[in-house]
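Q: Can someone sanity-check these two? First one:
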Amino acid sequence: MTGRDGMLRGLGLDDPQRENAVLLAIIEATANGPGVEPLAAAVAKVITDATATDVCFVHVLDDTDRSLTLAGATPPFDAQVGTVHLPFGQGVSGWVASMRTPVVIVDDKRSDPRYLPIPELRGEDFTSMVSVPMTSEPAGLAGVLNLHTRSRREFDDGDVRFLLAIGGLLAGAVHQARMHRRLRTREQAHERFSEQLVAAQESERGRLAREIHDGISQRLVSLSYHLDAALTLVDRDDPRQARADLESARDLAGTALGEARTAIGALRPPVLDDLGLGGALTALARDLPVEDVRLELDDERVPEHVEVALYRIAQEALQNVQKHARAAAVAILLEIAGDQVRLSVSDDGVGFDVSPLGPSSGGYGLASVRERADLIRGTARVESRPGSGTTLTITAPLTSPNDEESAENTRLSVTE
């Protein structure tokens, strides 16, 4: 039987009041906290208890938005939570996620071309299954909800509609939980980065202090000594020796001036003030010991903190080219479009295997590159493989968080 009565009998619900009780239990489960896994586990138990099914799996869209991860399951499969991953398009759940369409298999799963056995979930132990997408507006797809029974079960249209309603409730809660997790992860990353930034600032101050003490200060002391000696020799009417001391003093003054400029350049490259980011990148390219250098550089000015970060990243990337790449050609691209800037540094050198280099890796100076990209709320992507060169791409917004918040408030005011 189809329709509402069929739905109740098909899922083991006795009347509309019990159906409403199930929906209420789902709502209460979704209100228990922001964690995705506890939420999925609670909902899985509510659904199996209410529908007299044997097992429920809640597969949640992961942060790549291209695969599913088992986030909740009824025992004994709760031990597999977080270990089962299903790419879009693979298996029944992957097909449901990709097509946003429910699937019912009453029996003989192996005859369905979409079915893919997952040993950890022991699909062969169950006869019938129904799989529905968990979707909501405006969040979209949040995952896939699966119910299985050992005995043969006819899941009709009413059953599917009811499970879609549950999936819609769960999708909104999962979306909120994912956003909460991402926000918390970002906050933790910002906290760690703030600590690293303070440490880096103190380290940089200490380095500059040592350079000034060991370099500039010592040169100035020697300069003062030679000037005093020259004055004494002038008084003694010894111009030849006085001239020698003055020449030494002049050389020391030139050395001290060069060291002072180096120290100032470490704080902020003067070339940025004189030429802007495009001109500064051109100046960096001139120093490359590479015959073929291609430049595509927008000459618009960008915020000062973005200029400094991108310049330092380019410096690091080009130093890596010189040290490691053995390249014959280098390309530097700076593109400014709308409220975004993109910097790309490519070479045709030896390349390297990026797969072992995670987000925290310091290989090839990538750790400092990623840290500088984080400073300007940007992203760093490295593409390389042995023998095929390397491309580093930095993409960053040109607006500050305050600008974005102000724009959002303005938009809301206009909307309201």
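And here is the second, same format, sequence then tokens:
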Amino acid sequence: MSKLPNIGTSIFTLMSKMAVEHNAINLSQGFPNFPVDERLTDILSRISKEDIHQYLPMSGYPPLLLKIKKLVEKGYQRNIQPETELLVTAGATQAIFTAIQALVNSNNEVVMLDPSYDCYEAPVLLCNAKTVRVDLNDDYTPNWERIEKAFSSKTKMMIINNPHNPTGKTWTESDFLALENLLEKYPEVVLLSDEVYEYITFGPKHISVHSRPKLFNRSMVVSSFGKSFHITGWKVGYLVAPEHLMVEIKKVHQFLVFSVNSISQVAISEYLDLVSVEELGTFYQEKRDYFRKLLQNSRFELMPCEGTYFQVASYAAISSENDVDFCKRLITEHGVAAIPISIFYADAKDLKLVRFCFAKDNTTLEEAAKRLCAI
């Protein structure tokens, strides 16, 4: 009997498979197709000949832990203890899975905001717990009245995602004040904050849970080197949590992966001395602006994009078909792969929206836009 009877092959796998079969341009999955920084690949080449091929400490490579501490301190003025409050993970998905498995018990409830990324629900269900999914407003701002109604005595965790995948929306100061006021009423609830696109924002500076002292003692913040440094295949992320939560998280982590790839950790540790994460927002804003310019004469209506490397677009002026069918036809007839937004909702809410990934080289974006403008 399946533990996840209603979960099948992910839409990301399906769309990428179809893109290959039909030789379509893949703007569906969120991974870049441009080269990795040569400084990083040079480090990787050099250190691969050194004696760094055995297990590292379970929590992470000690020099890398110190670099992450400095990164958090510089970016958010938060002082964390690397020995007790930090864990290097095999990507952000593993960090999220591990935190949920460690802290959510049978019959607990976990509140998450739709549209929500697909890796949140499965680990909750594997705990024999319940997800309570609350729709964001149609402009993708949190509806705090609805969110508060979703809380109960069974609520153990709330999951937030900022900057938000798939919509590119970022939270405001008022959102965090509302969150803090809500959590004060439920002192037993812990917060899991998915911030993998924290350095990819445009306009207002990203507000992190790292900058909210009221939340420190009850929050886990998930970050991703894969997203930040265009190395998604390396699967290296990290999680920050107070010691009393991290003790439980590490218990699960040690039996999932024990320790994360040694070469990747050492290479990233060196690379952090050379790179400035502050430059990422500018780099991706140029990509976003260029992609939007290329599509300005198309029949797609482009939604606001405040962060991430995703652009949501309405196809309502093009077709009345549901978004999954539209995305399939977009591949088979027009040679471009996108992701339907309905798959991020519990009730498959269809607003005639699709998500494009613009983390691609300009040649790819230009050819994709040419095909999309011809529709």
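A (reply): Looked at the second one. The radius of gyration is 20 Å. The first strand starts at residue 25 and ends at 26.
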